[in-house]
């Protein structure tokens, strides 16, 4: 029997239209994957939470410090967006990889002899291992901060200005990285002022800053101790570490989570609160009393908890099961379950009576806090979507599971755009 020639190869049957790109995605999907896609499409069409839709997945969000806040939404760039209209106002381009964190603040600058103006600045951290300081109005990059040897996972502004810093604005910032270190930076010169290392066993995922007495002192000693700035970092080893910013020494460790901590959050924006909240892959959000460095509340979830934020009497969590949950801090009781997102919730913020939630589903959703308080969203907790897996133990890999998921999704988006 003669073989088909190369010229006849096009006549050889190749199966059910494999060459037809429009059918390829469905061809290689399982029934569960197809059903999950339909479920997400139905949730998207419901438009709950007055969604603002973006063309890219949202890795982080912050609100600029002004009466009319802007979201800063990140993928390979930073977008400045009006919270009320949802329209993009500015795009900041320069990073060579996905931007994972952003912060906004003001600084006074001399624009003419004897004339000083209040300027808005942005600080962003990226998978390209750098931080960038931007002029928010001109979009000009002012400084590039280099020193980390792996992805930057989170940043936080220093609180030095609260103790008499220059013009009442932050002069320092902190970053944490997959390289297992935290760094302190000058926002005036871009110099690295300190490195905090050799304590976490693995990557550092999140960072926050508090202002208060030494957390290792007892109540009597703390009452007369100096008020200082303290650095708190959370990592894949399931611990939160407290650092003396001057000596670089780890002075306290918060232990209790079974696996990776994705977020650590100070309960007040000025860092003067008496507790911290953490969100973990072990399906819990926990509150830690800074006076005793011990856990006093644990809130159970049906899936990994990705983000946490406090607003008034509530603590709000974002979960991998796509739901935002609102708990009463005093009682620990679930007050509301906000269903609208169709992917995990990466970031939560609040301003002027509105709760903002940002997700990998490429939307920011807006929830009036008055509606939450009135019981509009009150309901029994919902189960996780079908196929939700148990929280995984730490793995021996160059990337964490979260990074592999994010990278795969980002590359998927890039392929779709080509």
TrEMBL record:
<feature type="repeat" description="WD">
    <location>
        <begin position="231"/>
        <end position="253"/>
    </location>
</feature>
<feature type="repeat" description="WD">
    <location>
        <begin position="338"/>
        <end position="367"/>
    </location>
</feature>
<protein>
    <submittedName>
        <fullName>WD40-repeat-containing domain protein</fullName>
    </submittedName>
</protein>
<dbReference type="Pfam" id="PF00400">
    <property type="entry name" value="WD40"/>
</dbReference>
<dbReference type="InterPro" id="IPR020472">
    <property type="entry name" value="WD40_PAC1"/>
</dbReference>
<feature type="region of interest" description="Disordered">
    <location>
        <begin position="378"/>
        <end position="418"/>
    </location>
</feature>
<dbReference type="InterPro" id="IPR036322">
    <property type="entry name" value="WD40_repeat_dom_sf"/>
</dbReference>
<dbReference type="InterPro" id="IPR015943">
    <property type="entry name" value="WD40/YVTN_repeat-like_dom_sf"/>
</dbReference>
<feature type="compositionally biased region" description="Acidic residues">
    <location>
        <begin position="399"/>
        <end position="418"/>
    </location>
</feature>
<keyword id="KW-0853">WD repeat</keyword>
<dbReference type="InterPro" id="IPR001680">
    <property type="entry name" value="WD40_rpt"/>
</dbReference>
<feature type="repeat" description="WD">
    <location>
        <begin position="121"/>
        <end position="144"/>
    </location>
</feature>
<feature type="repeat" description="WD">
    <location>
        <begin position="254"/>
        <end position="298"/>
    </location>
</feature>
<keyword id="KW-0677">Repeat</keyword>
